[in-house]
Amino acid sequence: MPDYAAARRTMVDAQIRANDVVDPRIHAAMLSVPRENFVPNAKRAFAYADVPVEVAPKRYMLDPRVFAKMVQLAEIKSSDRILDVGCATGYSTAILARLGREVVALEQDADLVRIASEILPSVPDTKTAVVQGGLVEGVKAQGPYDVIFINGAVEEVPDTLLAQMAEGGRLVVV
To answer: How sure is the predictor about 47, in pLDDT bands with cuts at 50, 70 and 90?
Structure first.
């Protein structure tokens, strides 16, 4: 049986701290959330590798280093309301919820919504709501958001998401 706690520590030490992610709150969040629970059983060996992990056909969880750098760029405060766009199985949501006040997790794939909805309640200290809907549309009814975190890359940020940002809000995307 793999020692996932040791793998988490190695991930934080070798991939996160070593790549200039200096916020100790991010380190603590990534040490406390069991990433292996958010990947399919067949992919658990890759849960802490420095590679994107496929969680559904053509859907990937960001690699830990890129994810942590994006979280640091968001400069999340404990009072922030966060929209997590493309949350997949909910790992990003769990981390973001450890840092901010509350997170609305948006996912369009029904199977991923079901998985995230099942896993997230088991993660302590997370204030989350999982919503199924189009990623471009966001979740206007629960906005505005201090942070909009987009898991992945876009050619252009949709105006529909920008309109849901609170004044002085931050958007992080590749």
So the answer is: very high
pLDDT at 123: 85
Task: Using DSSP bridges, classify how beta strands 145-150 and 128-132 pair: parallel, antiparallel or unpaired.
Answer: unpaired
HEC string of the chain equals CCCHHHHHHHHHHHHHHHHCCCCHHHHHHHHHCCHHHHCCHHHHHHCCCCCCEEEECCEEECCHHHHHHHHHHHCCCCCCEEEEECCCCCHHHHHHHHHCCEEEEEECCHHHHHHHHHHHHHCCCCCEEEEECCCCCCCHHHCCEEEEEECCCCCCCCHHHHCCEEEEEEEECC
The yes-or-no verdict on residue 126 having pLDDT over 80 is no
Per-residue model confidence (pLDDT) at position 117: 96
- The answer for residues whose C-beta is within 8 angstroms of residue 44's C-beta and 6 or more apart is 2, 36
